[in-house]
Amino acid sequence: MTSTADYAHLRAQLDTLTTEAFRPDLADIDRRSTLDIARTMNDEDATVPAAVARRLPEIAAAIDATAARMARGGRLVYAGAGTAGRLGVLDASECPPTFNTDPSQVLGLIAGGPSAMISAVEGAEDSKKFAVEDLTGIGLTDLDTVVGISASGRTPYAIGAVEYARGLGALTIGLSCNADSALAAAAEHGIEIVVGPELLTGSTRLKAGTAQKLVLNMLSTLTMIRLGKTYGNLMVDVRASNEKLRARSRRIVALATGATDPEIETALSITDGEVKNAILTLLGNVDGPTAARLLDAANGHLREALQAAKNP
Questions:
Q1: 236-281 pLDDT, tens per residue?
Q2: Per DSSP, which regions of the chain are E strands?
Q3: Which positions fall inside the SIS domain (predicted)?
């Protein structure tokens, strides 16, 4: 049972957070025209990329550290509650089809478990213990990277995840949208994207959510680039799990090699549909098994494998 004193303490905490601040200039927003509200909201959203830009050095440092851990076999684990947790799960779920990662390589943990993706789980975010249980459940090790995500920077679940992970020697990143947050302080890499008060007071699925999505896009995408999951700006590790992706696979091979359609079909056939391997057979003039061997020796980096194919 939460006491009146506890609620007073929590309210005092919220009063200090930029993401919870009240905007008197927007107090009449419900009386404005829809177009005016839309313009105001769009203007607010336009400020988010600049807030992210101010933290690019911290973001880049976190990405380099994450890539180094993952290159040694570590995993990337997101942990958050509510909107923050959902954004982490979303980013994790998009890595297998985009970068052909194993589903266990990038994970999203949300306070309250999978059901919290679609409905609130009462009290789940208030427990550091739940975070520890979730990380213990996946067998967290010191090779892994844990990203705690919380707009307020005070969510116990996110802080608990980072504290437990850091205690194990794992790499830790704390992503929040308030300055001087407890989450950033708990993590080795603190990233604070201060976007200011929301259009709707305290609705951090808006600017704060957009900021978190932008940073998570960078974190996963740039990490995968560093791990050799791309060739230039082509997604050469894309997993062709549907017709659209199969068409995209052929287009990627064409863009990378300039080969004809019959040549592309042959290359994909002898490499079991693996785009990266198909490109290597065409550009390196090697067969399928040799392409696989060269890529394995290069830890999946296509440019290195191409260099080895041209200079055996």
A1: 998 777 888 889 999 999 999 999 999 999 999 999 999 999 999 9
A2: 76-80, 106-110, 145-150, 171-176, 189-192
A3: 66-229
